[in-house]
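Researcher: Go.
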Amino acid sequence: MRIGNASGFYGDRFSAFEEMLTGGPLDVLTGDYLAELTMLILGRDRLKSPDLGYAKTFLRQLEEGLGLARERGVRIVANAGGLNPAGLADAVRALAAKAGIPVSVAHVEGDDLMPFAEGALTANAYLGGAGITACLRAGADVVVTGRVTDAALVSGAAAWWFDWAPDDHDRLAGAVVAGHVLECGTQATGGNYSFFTAHDVRRPGFPLAEIAEDGSSVITKHPGTGGVVSVGTVTAQLLYETQGPRYLGPDVTARLDTARLAQTDADRVSISGVVGEAPPATLKVGVTRIGGWRNEVVFVLTGLDIEEKAALVRTQLAGALAQVATADWTLARTDHEDAETEETASALLRLVVRDPSPDRVGRALTSEAIELALASYPGFHVTSPPGPAQPYGVFTSSTVPATAVPHVAVLPNGTRQPVPAVSPAPPASEARGSGDAAPAGSGAEPTDPGRGGAGESPAGQPTRRVPLGTLIGARSGDKGGDANIGVWVERDDAWEWLHATLTAEALQTLLPETAGLRVTRHTLPNLRALNFTIAGILGDGVASAHRFDPQAKALGEWLRARHTDIPAHLLPTHLPLTPEGTAP
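Model: Structure:
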């Protein structure tokens, strides 16, 4: 079967839906619209009206796409239902009726566990793909869901197409891995790719998977579309937002350490050998809350005496901040000595305040900062005018027994078909599909076998001090308050060095912001990859804006930019040598 993806997040390329339907043959088109931050956004929408709570963009895309899908015999599966899949299903039916398009619509529900706990805005279990399978077996042309795992959009459709049984673990696991590659759209076709300079990625095409009956797949894209599908781009996406080798999901546990990749042709990468195991007995539950109120001011400090200017502002505002719950200052030294432009001569001093009360961090506070304009450091100005306080969210996760969640497929004729929980595996605590900040399990190395020093090489072997990214690729992301960084290399000799050298301790040396946090390393030899989980670096998650890079999207690129000593024979031969024998 040929299954494509047309959305990696709520706000992705609007035209992708039509492009995927017209660019080549498909059997199923999926769309992933949900993320931790999206659930908070949809939760606030639902507070305004109980009729809201779904991704409105999807409905607009169907205005053109529904007729195209019907003409081409393409089924549509999307998690755009968010907090209101029944409401979205009704809206799709109304749209189809108005356009005179005869389609059958079904939806999956039961993930919404509200009321869940005091103060919760949303609480949703991550369901598997079995409800999607049931809807497609009943003849649905369009299936919309609430919170299912991202990969379930693909595995649920594949189980329908091939009529897999719930205990076809290897086949399901292969489809889950393919689904994980597809779920973030163009990240599989050259988007956000470490080695982007080697390819034309100005407008990557969206990915599709050709899935075989045994669960193996080929990742590719429609002919003539931009970007690239390579072992590297697929590896990067396989490492994205995962933790241990066992990728726990509601339908199956996929063993990422068994996946084998091969470049079979231009823009064609095969995935084979994936081993599946029974799923755990629990489902992840993602919970969002309104954590309080926040505000910020960014002061521009230009020229000389940057540190002294920053100290003056902090002193002048100390009294105003005394009653605020938290006030975080960050000085970003973006300034350059003897700069040729004013902007490159400037540093940024960022003040972020948070409090349970909007009054203590509202316009009165930011206005007090602006009142310093003529009474503070020379060259005083800020990046934006004072603004009101804004609510911020907090994301947490927990688990519930799978048998306690009423997973239901609502078929096109309105029949409500319960979806039984899958027989579980023994308890495990590794990474869950589509996001579990669970502690590392048996896939984590209790102690790193490497020497523990970034850049160390066998005695006498010539090295060059260069950015780590000269050799390695990386991709990073968020899971609640945790972050992961996946790193990989393309050759066996480079893998031997990477595995021996880049330990958890070495990573903490390279990234000082991780000091004091629990860092766990996992190895994936088939991918020549390491995956690091950094616990707590993102505080309460993306919606809390705890950090400069709240989703850890660039954490891997920071790691690649750090300089270390790498054996010279592993590096590209074009790197110049200094008189001392090292690369500049």
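Model: Residues 435-443, 446-452, 576-584 have pLDDT under 50 and may be disordered.
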